[in-house]
Amino acid sequence: MTSTIAVIGTGYVGLTTGACFAHLGHCVICADIVPEKIDQLQRGEIPIHEARLEELVRVGLDSGNLTFVLGAENAVAEAEFVYLCVPTPQSADGSADLSYLQAAASEISAKLRPGTIVVNKSTVPVGSTLLVEQALGRSDIPVVSNPEFLREGTAVDDFLNPDRVVIGADDHAAAGRVASLHLGVRAPIMVTDPASAETCKYAANAFLATKLSFTNAIAAVCEAVGADVNDVLLGMGYDHRIGHEFLRPGPGWGGSCFPKDSKAIITIAEDAGYDFSLMRGVVAVNEEQFDRIVGKVESVIDVDGTTVSVLGIAFKANTDDTRESPALEVMKRLVAKGAKVKAYDPAVTSVELDGVEVVGDAYSACEGASAIVIATEWDDFKWLDFDRIADVVTARNVVDARNLLDRGALRRRGFTYQGVGRN
Ligand code: UDX
Protein backbone atom coordinates (compact mmCIF):
# COMPACT_ATOMS: atom_id res chain seq x y z
CA MET A 1 0.00 0.00 0.00
CA THR A 2 1.53 3.31 -1.10
CA SER A 3 1.23 6.32 1.17
CA THR A 4 2.18 9.96 0.86
CA ILE A 5 4.79 10.90 3.45
CA ALA A 6 6.32 14.27 4.23
CA VAL A 7 9.69 14.24 6.02
CA ILE A 8 10.70 17.43 7.82
CA GLY A 9 14.49 17.70 8.15
CA THR A 10 17.06 16.14 5.80
CA GLY A 11 19.91 15.34 8.20
CA TYR A 12 21.24 11.82 8.92
CA VAL A 13 17.82 10.66 10.16
CA GLY A 14 15.50 12.58 7.82
CA LEU A 15 17.36 11.85 4.60
CA THR A 16 17.69 8.16 5.43
CA THR A 17 14.03 7.95 6.47
CA GLY A 18 12.82 9.68 3.30
CA ALA A 19 15.01 7.68 0.93
CA CYS A 20 14.11 4.37 2.58
CA PHE A 21 10.37 5.04 2.61
CA ALA A 22 10.64 5.94 -1.11
CA HIS A 23 12.55 2.69 -1.63
CA LEU A 24 9.65 0.86 0.06
CA GLY A 25 7.33 2.35 -2.57
CA HIS A 26 5.85 5.34 -0.79
CA CYS A 27 5.58 8.84 -2.25
CA VAL A 28 7.95 10.99 -0.18
CA ILE A 29 8.49 14.76 -0.03
CA CYS A 30 11.45 15.86 2.09
CA ALA A 31 11.72 19.43 3.35
CA ASP A 32 14.55 21.44 4.81
CA ILE A 33 15.11 25.12 5.65
CA VAL A 34 18.50 25.43 3.90
CA PRO A 35 18.08 26.30 0.17
CA GLU A 36 21.56 25.10 -0.79
CA LYS A 37 20.88 21.74 0.83
CA ILE A 38 17.62 21.29 -1.10
CA ASP A 39 19.33 22.20 -4.38
CA GLN A 40 22.13 19.73 -3.64
CA LEU A 41 19.73 16.92 -2.76
CA GLN A 42 17.51 17.61 -5.77
CA ARG A 43 20.69 17.05 -7.86
CA GLY A 44 21.18 13.73 -6.08
CA GLU A 45 24.27 14.95 -4.23
CA ILE A 46 24.51 13.46 -0.72
CA PRO A 47 26.43 15.51 1.89
CA ILE A 48 26.94 12.60 4.32
CA HIS A 49 28.75 9.24 4.39
CA GLU A 50 26.01 6.62 4.34
CA ALA A 51 26.32 3.31 2.48
CA ARG A 52 23.64 2.92 -0.25
CA LEU A 53 22.04 6.30 0.51
CA GLU A 54 23.19 7.96 -2.71
CA GLU A 55 21.81 5.02 -4.74
CA LEU A 56 18.42 5.14 -2.97
CA VAL A 57 18.14 8.91 -3.43
CA ARG A 58 19.06 8.63 -7.11
CA VAL A 59 16.47 5.90 -7.71
CA GLY A 60 13.88 7.85 -5.74
CA LEU A 61 14.48 11.02 -7.75
CA ASP A 62 14.42 9.16 -11.08
CA SER A 63 11.21 7.31 -10.20
CA GLY A 64 9.51 10.46 -8.88
CA ASN A 65 8.94 8.72 -5.52
CA LEU A 66 11.25 11.18 -3.79
CA THR A 67 11.31 14.96 -4.06
CA PHE A 68 12.88 17.77 -2.03
CA VAL A 69 11.27 21.11 -1.25
CA LEU A 70 12.21 24.22 0.67
CA GLY A 71 10.18 24.79 3.81
CA ALA A 72 8.06 22.33 5.79
CA GLU A 73 4.83 24.08 4.89
CA ASN A 74 5.45 23.20 1.22
CA ALA A 75 5.75 19.49 1.90
CA VAL A 76 2.68 18.60 3.97
CA ALA A 77 -0.42 19.68 2.00
CA GLU A 78 -1.05 16.22 0.45
CA ALA A 79 0.71 14.19 3.15
CA GLU A 80 -1.03 11.34 5.00
CA PHE A 81 1.98 11.13 7.34
CA VAL A 82 4.42 13.84 8.44
CA TYR A 83 7.72 12.59 9.93
CA LEU A 84 9.48 15.11 12.17
CA CYS A 85 13.22 14.49 11.82
CA VAL A 86 14.53 17.78 13.15
CA PRO A 87 17.53 18.17 15.48
CA THR A 88 17.05 17.83 19.23
CA PRO A 89 20.46 19.15 20.33
CA GLN A 90 21.68 19.17 23.91
CA SER A 91 20.96 22.30 25.94
CA ALA A 92 23.54 23.76 28.34
CA ASP A 93 21.90 21.96 31.29
CA GLY A 94 22.07 18.57 29.51
CA SER A 95 18.39 18.50 28.58
CA ALA A 96 17.22 18.11 24.99
CA ASP A 97 16.45 21.35 23.14
CA LEU A 98 12.99 20.86 21.60
CA SER A 99 12.64 24.29 20.05
CA TYR A 100 13.14 22.97 16.49
CA LEU A 101 10.49 20.30 17.06
CA GLN A 102 7.98 22.81 18.40
CA ALA A 103 8.74 25.27 15.60
CA ALA A 104 8.23 22.59 12.93
CA ALA A 105 4.92 21.47 14.45
CA SER A 106 3.61 25.03 14.74
CA GLU A 107 4.69 25.83 11.18
CA ILE A 108 2.82 22.95 9.56
CA SER A 109 -0.30 22.79 11.74
CA ALA A 110 -2.64 24.92 9.62
CA LYS A 111 -1.55 23.10 6.42
CA LEU A 112 -2.38 19.58 7.57
CA ARG A 113 -5.43 17.75 6.26
CA PRO A 114 -7.65 16.29 9.00
CA GLY A 115 -6.49 12.79 9.91
CA THR A 116 -2.91 13.33 8.86
CA ILE A 117 -0.64 11.53 11.31
CA VAL A 118 2.38 13.40 12.68
CA VAL A 119 5.26 11.08 13.63
CA ASN A 120 8.15 11.96 15.97
CA LYS A 121 11.29 10.31 14.56
CA SER A 122 13.79 12.55 16.33
CA THR A 123 15.11 11.38 19.67
CA VAL A 124 12.89 13.24 22.10
CA PRO A 125 12.38 13.18 25.88
CA VAL A 126 9.47 11.41 27.47
CA GLY A 127 6.36 13.53 27.05
CA SER A 128 7.37 15.10 23.74
CA THR A 129 4.42 13.54 21.94
CA LEU A 130 2.18 15.63 24.19
CA LEU A 131 4.35 18.67 23.51
CA VAL A 132 3.98 18.21 19.74
CA GLU A 133 0.21 17.77 20.14
CA GLN A 134 0.13 21.08 22.02
CA ALA A 135 2.28 22.80 19.39
CA LEU A 136 -0.02 21.49 16.64
CA GLY A 137 -3.17 22.51 18.52
CA ARG A 138 -5.26 20.15 16.38
CA SER A 139 -7.45 17.42 17.96
CA ASP A 140 -7.93 15.84 14.50
CA ILE A 141 -4.19 15.18 14.07
CA PRO A 142 -2.86 12.11 15.97
CA VAL A 143 0.81 12.27 17.06
CA VAL A 144 2.82 9.04 17.13
CA SER A 145 6.33 8.25 18.40
CA ASN A 146 8.48 6.10 16.07
CA PRO A 147 12.04 6.42 17.37
CA GLU A 148 15.00 5.63 15.13
CA PHE A 149 17.76 3.17 16.01
CA LEU A 150 20.08 4.07 13.12
CA ARG A 151 23.88 3.88 13.37
CA GLU A 152 25.90 6.32 11.27
CA GLY A 153 27.48 4.60 8.29
CA THR A 154 24.91 1.77 8.26
CA ALA A 155 21.72 3.83 8.61
CA VAL A 156 20.10 2.55 5.39
CA ASP A 157 20.62 -1.09 6.34
CA ASP A 158 19.52 -0.35 9.90
CA PHE A 159 16.29 1.20 8.55
CA LEU A 160 15.46 -1.53 6.04
CA ASN A 161 16.64 -4.46 8.21
CA PRO A 162 16.06 -3.26 11.78
CA ASP A 163 16.06 -5.44 14.88
CA ARG A 164 12.62 -3.97 15.63
CA VAL A 165 10.24 -1.12 14.86
CA VAL A 166 8.88 0.69 17.91
CA ILE A 167 5.64 2.66 17.65
CA GLY A 168 4.26 4.69 20.54
CA ALA A 169 0.65 5.87 20.26
CA ASP A 170 -2.47 6.14 22.39
CA ASP A 171 -4.54 6.06 19.19
CA HIS A 172 -4.25 2.44 18.07
CA ALA A 173 -5.72 3.12 14.62
CA ALA A 174 -2.96 5.67 14.05
CA ALA A 175 -0.39 3.17 15.33
CA GLY A 176 -1.70 0.60 12.86
CA ARG A 177 -1.41 3.06 9.98
CA VAL A 178 2.21 3.89 10.90
CA ALA A 179 2.94 0.16 11.22
CA SER A 180 1.57 -0.38 7.71
CA LEU A 181 4.25 1.95 6.30
CA HIS A 182 6.80 -0.67 7.32
CA LEU A 183 5.15 -3.65 5.55
CA GLY A 184 8.28 -4.04 3.40
CA VAL A 185 10.45 -4.33 6.53
CA ARG A 186 10.98 -7.83 7.96
CA ALA A 187 11.24 -7.11 11.68
CA PRO A 188 9.09 -7.26 14.82
CA ILE A 189 6.82 -4.20 15.03
CA MET A 190 5.87 -3.39 18.62
CA VAL A 191 3.14 -0.93 19.57
CA THR A 192 3.19 0.72 22.97
CA ASP A 193 2.29 4.04 24.54
CA PRO A 194 4.23 7.21 23.61
CA ALA A 195 6.11 7.50 26.91
CA SER A 196 7.35 3.91 26.65
CA ALA A 197 8.46 4.36 23.04
CA GLU A 198 10.33 7.57 23.88
CA THR A 199 11.93 5.99 26.94
CA CYS A 200 12.89 2.85 24.98
CA LYS A 201 15.03 4.93 22.62
CA TYR A 202 16.94 6.66 25.42
CA ALA A 203 17.22 3.44 27.41
CA ALA A 204 18.67 1.56 24.42
CA ASN A 205 21.34 4.19 23.80
CA ALA A 206 22.09 4.51 27.52
CA PHE A 207 22.51 0.74 27.80
CA LEU A 208 24.84 0.61 24.78
CA ALA A 209 26.93 3.42 26.27
CA THR A 210 26.96 1.53 29.57
CA LYS A 211 28.20 -1.60 27.79
CA LEU A 212 31.03 0.42 26.25
CA SER A 213 32.04 2.14 29.48
CA PHE A 214 32.03 -1.24 31.19
CA THR A 215 34.25 -2.61 28.41
CA ASN A 216 36.71 0.26 28.81
CA ALA A 217 36.70 -0.10 32.59
CA ILE A 218 37.38 -3.85 32.31
CA ALA A 219 40.24 -2.97 29.98
CA ALA A 220 41.71 -0.82 32.76
CA VAL A 221 41.32 -3.73 35.18
CA CYS A 222 43.09 -6.01 32.70
CA GLU A 223 46.02 -3.59 32.49
CA ALA A 224 46.20 -3.51 36.28
CA VAL A 225 46.08 -7.29 36.81
CA GLY A 226 48.08 -8.30 33.71
CA ALA A 227 45.22 -9.88 31.77
CA ASP A 228 44.57 -9.53 28.03
CA VAL A 229 41.28 -7.72 27.45
CA ASN A 230 40.78 -9.35 24.07
CA ASP A 231 40.66 -12.80 25.66
CA VAL A 232 38.63 -11.59 28.64
CA LEU A 233 36.00 -10.03 26.36
CA LEU A 234 35.97 -13.08 24.10
CA GLY A 235 35.37 -15.29 27.10
CA MET A 236 32.60 -12.97 28.31
CA GLY A 237 30.97 -12.66 24.89
CA TYR A 238 30.34 -16.40 24.52
CA ASP A 239 27.64 -15.95 27.14
CA HIS A 240 24.57 -15.36 24.94
CA ARG A 241 23.27 -12.91 27.53
CA ILE A 242 26.33 -10.72 26.90
CA GLY A 243 27.18 -11.37 23.24
CA HIS A 244 30.30 -10.35 21.34
CA GLU A 245 29.00 -7.14 19.80
CA PHE A 246 29.73 -3.70 21.17
CA LEU A 247 32.57 -5.04 23.31
CA ARG A 248 35.53 -3.33 21.61
CA PRO A 249 37.62 -1.16 23.98
CA GLY A 250 38.60 2.24 22.66
CA PRO A 251 39.42 5.86 23.51
CA GLY A 252 35.87 6.29 24.79
CA TRP A 253 32.55 6.62 22.99
CA GLY A 254 31.39 9.71 21.07
CA GLY A 255 29.20 10.78 18.18
CA SER A 256 26.09 12.91 17.86
CA CYS A 257 23.93 10.55 19.94
CA PHE A 258 25.51 8.73 22.87
CA PRO A 259 26.96 11.81 24.63
CA LYS A 260 23.75 13.82 24.09
CA ASP A 261 21.36 11.01 24.97
CA SER A 262 23.35 9.82 28.01
CA LYS A 263 23.21 13.28 29.55
CA ALA A 264 19.58 13.75 28.51
CA ILE A 265 18.37 10.57 30.23
CA ILE A 266 20.14 11.63 33.43
CA THR A 267 18.31 14.97 33.28
CA ILE A 268 14.99 13.36 32.31
CA ALA A 269 15.28 10.97 35.26
CA GLU A 270 16.29 13.69 37.73
CA ASP A 271 13.45 15.97 36.57
CA ALA A 272 11.10 13.05 37.21
CA GLY A 273 12.58 12.40 40.66
CA TYR A 274 15.06 9.58 40.07
CA ASP A 275 18.82 10.01 40.64
CA PHE A 276 20.32 8.02 37.75
CA SER A 277 23.69 7.61 39.51
CA LEU A 278 24.63 4.57 37.40
CA MET A 279 24.42 6.63 34.21
CA ARG A 280 26.46 9.43 35.75
CA GLY A 281 29.12 6.81 36.42
CA VAL A 282 28.95 5.64 32.79
CA VAL A 283 29.54 9.20 31.57
CA ALA A 284 32.33 9.73 34.13
CA VAL A 285 34.14 6.54 33.04
CA ASN A 286 33.97 7.78 29.46
CA GLU A 287 35.53 11.12 30.38
CA GLU A 288 38.23 9.21 32.30
CA GLN A 289 38.95 7.10 29.24
CA PHE A 290 40.02 10.19 27.27
CA ASP A 291 42.40 11.00 30.15
CA ARG A 292 43.71 7.42 30.25
CA ILE A 293 44.72 7.58 26.59
CA VAL A 294 46.56 10.85 27.19
CA GLY A 295 48.15 9.29 30.29
CA LYS A 296 49.56 6.52 28.13
CA VAL A 297 51.26 9.12 25.93
CA GLU A 298 52.63 10.89 29.01
CA SER A 299 54.02 7.58 30.30
CA VAL A 300 56.49 7.45 27.39
CA ILE A 301 57.22 11.12 26.56
CA ASP A 302 57.19 14.55 28.15
CA VAL A 303 54.29 15.95 26.10
CA ASP A 304 55.10 19.63 26.61
CA GLY A 305 56.80 21.04 23.52
CA THR A 306 56.70 17.79 21.51
CA THR A 307 54.80 16.77 18.40
CA VAL A 308 52.20 14.03 18.76
CA SER A 309 50.58 12.37 15.75
CA VAL A 310 46.90 11.47 16.10
CA LEU A 311 45.66 9.10 13.41
CA GLY A 312 41.88 9.26 13.17
CA ILE A 313 39.64 12.29 13.77
CA ALA A 314 36.11 10.96 13.07
CA PHE A 315 34.18 9.55 16.06
CA LYS A 316 34.31 6.12 14.47
CA ALA A 317 35.53 4.56 11.22
CA ASN A 318 33.63 4.84 7.91
CA THR A 319 32.17 8.25 8.65
CA ASP A 320 33.39 11.85 8.36
CA ASP A 321 31.42 12.92 11.43
CA THR A 322 33.60 14.49 14.12
CA ARG A 323 30.79 15.52 16.48
CA GLU A 324 31.84 14.65 20.06
CA SER A 325 34.67 12.58 18.63
CA PRO A 326 36.91 10.88 21.26
CA ALA A 327 39.84 11.72 18.98
CA LEU A 328 39.13 15.43 19.45
CA GLU A 329 38.89 14.96 23.23
CA VAL A 330 42.34 13.34 23.21
CA MET A 331 43.77 16.09 20.98
CA LYS A 332 42.35 18.86 23.22
CA ARG A 333 44.02 17.32 26.25
CA LEU A 334 47.36 16.88 24.48
CA VAL A 335 47.37 20.49 23.28
CA ALA A 336 46.45 21.69 26.78
CA LYS A 337 49.59 19.88 28.01
CA GLY A 338 51.78 21.72 25.49
CA ALA A 339 51.87 19.29 22.58
CA LYS A 340 51.68 20.19 18.92
CA VAL A 341 49.27 17.72 17.29
CA LYS A 342 49.48 16.59 13.67
CA ALA A 343 46.32 14.73 12.71
CA TYR A 344 45.19 12.71 9.72
CA ASP A 345 41.88 11.02 8.87
CA PRO A 346 40.87 9.46 5.52
CA ALA A 347 37.48 11.22 5.63
CA VAL A 348 38.14 14.41 7.60
CA THR A 349 40.23 17.22 6.09
CA SER A 350 39.97 19.94 8.74
CA VAL A 351 39.17 20.58 12.39
CA GLU A 352 38.74 23.87 14.25
CA LEU A 353 41.11 23.17 17.12
CA ASP A 354 44.05 25.39 18.18
CA GLY A 355 47.34 23.52 18.19
CA VAL A 356 46.10 20.86 15.76
CA GLU A 357 47.35 20.68 12.18
CA VAL A 358 45.44 18.33 9.85
CA VAL A 359 47.69 16.89 7.13
CA GLY A 360 46.93 14.93 3.98
CA ASP A 361 48.33 11.50 4.81
CA ALA A 362 49.32 9.35 7.77
CA TYR A 363 53.05 9.43 7.06
CA SER A 364 53.16 13.25 7.01
CA ALA A 365 51.27 13.20 10.30
CA CYS A 366 54.00 10.98 11.81
CA GLU A 367 56.93 13.14 10.67
CA GLY A 368 58.75 14.51 13.70
CA ALA A 369 56.31 12.91 16.11
CA SER A 370 57.48 11.61 19.48
CA ALA A 371 54.33 9.52 19.85
CA ILE A 372 51.56 8.24 17.58
CA VAL A 373 47.97 7.74 18.80
CA ILE A 374 45.56 5.52 16.84
CA ALA A 375 42.24 7.18 17.71
CA THR A 376 39.80 5.87 15.05
CA GLU A 377 39.59 2.30 13.79
CA TRP A 378 40.09 2.96 10.07
CA ASP A 379 41.25 -0.14 8.20
CA ASP A 380 43.77 2.11 6.40
CA PHE A 381 45.79 2.31 9.63
CA LYS A 382 46.12 -1.48 9.88
CA TRP A 383 48.33 -1.56 6.80
CA LEU A 384 50.64 1.39 7.55
CA ASP A 385 54.34 0.77 6.78
CA PHE A 386 55.96 1.15 10.22
CA ASP A 387 59.44 0.62 8.78
CA ARG A 388 58.85 3.83 6.85
CA ILE A 389 57.29 5.51 9.90
CA ALA A 390 60.29 4.48 12.04
CA ASP A 391 62.51 6.59 9.77
CA VAL A 392 60.45 9.79 10.14
CA VAL A 393 59.44 9.87 13.81
CA THR A 394 61.50 11.56 16.51
CA ALA A 395 60.74 8.70 18.91
CA ARG A 396 59.13 5.29 18.36
CA ASN A 397 56.06 5.29 20.61
CA VAL A 398 52.57 4.05 19.67
CA VAL A 399 49.40 4.34 21.76
CA ASP A 400 46.87 2.16 19.97
CA ALA A 401 43.56 3.33 21.46
CA ARG A 402 41.64 0.90 19.21
CA ASN A 403 43.82 -2.23 19.63
CA LEU A 404 44.07 -2.14 15.84
CA LEU A 405 47.78 -2.83 15.24
CA ASP A 406 50.09 -5.86 15.55
CA ARG A 407 51.73 -5.34 18.95
CA GLY A 408 54.57 -7.82 18.24
CA ALA A 409 55.42 -6.39 14.83
CA LEU A 410 55.70 -2.89 16.26
CA ARG A 411 57.83 -3.99 19.20
CA ARG A 412 60.17 -5.88 16.82
CA ARG A 413 60.66 -2.55 15.02
CA GLY A 414 61.73 -0.82 18.20
CA PHE A 415 58.43 0.89 18.99
CA THR A 416 56.96 1.00 22.46
CA TYR A 417 53.38 -0.24 22.11
CA GLN A 418 50.46 0.44 24.44
CA GLY A 419 47.00 -0.82 23.61
CA VAL A 420 43.82 -0.62 25.70
CA GLY A 421 43.58 -3.49 28.17
CA ARG A 422 46.74 -5.16 26.87
CA ASN A 423 50.25 -5.01 28.34
C1 UDX B 1 24.46 5.00 18.10
C2 UDX B 1 23.63 3.76 18.34
O1 UDX B 1 24.41 2.59 18.05
C3 UDX B 1 22.39 3.78 17.44
O2 UDX B 1 21.58 2.65 17.71
C4 UDX B 1 21.60 5.05 17.74
O3 UDX B 1 20.44 5.11 16.92
C5 UDX B 1 22.48 6.27 17.49
O4 UDX B 1 23.66 6.20 18.31
P1 UDX B 1 26.20 5.88 16.32
O5 UDX B 1 26.24 7.11 17.15
O6 UDX B 1 26.13 5.99 14.84
O7 UDX B 1 24.92 4.96 16.77
O8 UDX B 1 27.53 5.09 16.64
P2 UDX B 1 27.94 3.67 17.20
O9 UDX B 1 28.29 2.80 16.07
O10 UDX B 1 26.94 3.17 18.18
O11 UDX B 1 29.29 4.06 18.00
C6 UDX B 1 29.17 5.02 19.04
C7 UDX B 1 30.56 5.21 19.66
O12 UDX B 1 30.96 4.02 20.34
C8 UDX B 1 31.67 5.50 18.63
O13 UDX B 1 32.56 6.47 19.16
C9 UDX B 1 32.36 4.14 18.50
O14 UDX B 1 33.74 4.26 18.12
C10 UDX B 1 32.24 3.60 19.90
N1 UDX B 1 32.29 2.14 19.96
C11 UDX B 1 31.31 1.40 19.35
C12 UDX B 1 33.32 1.53 20.68
O15 UDX B 1 34.20 2.20 21.23
N2 UDX B 1 33.35 0.17 20.77
C13 UDX B 1 32.39 -0.61 20.18
O16 UDX B 1 32.48 -1.84 20.30
C14 UDX B 1 31.35 0.02 19.44
Low-confidence stretches: none
Average of the residue pLDDT scores: 96
CATH top level label of the largest domain: Alpha Beta
Q: What small molecules accompany the polymer chains?
A: uridine-5'-diphosphate-xylopyranose
Numbering strands along the chain, what is their spatial order in the largest sheet?
3-2-1-4-5-6
Total number of beta strands:
14
- Termini separation comes to 58 Å
Counted by DSSP, the helix tally is: 15
CATH architecture of the largest domain: 3-Layer(aba) Sandwich
Task: Kindly state the percentage of residues in helix.
Answer: 40-55%
Describe the main β-sheet briefly.
Answer: 6 strands, parallel
Number of domains: 2
Corresponding CATH superfamily of the largest domain: NAD(P)-binding Rossmann-like Domain
CATH topology of the largest domain: Rossmann fold
The gross shape turns out to be: elongated
Estimate what percentage of residues fall within beta strands. 5-15%
Rg over CA atoms, rounded to whole Å, is 23 Å
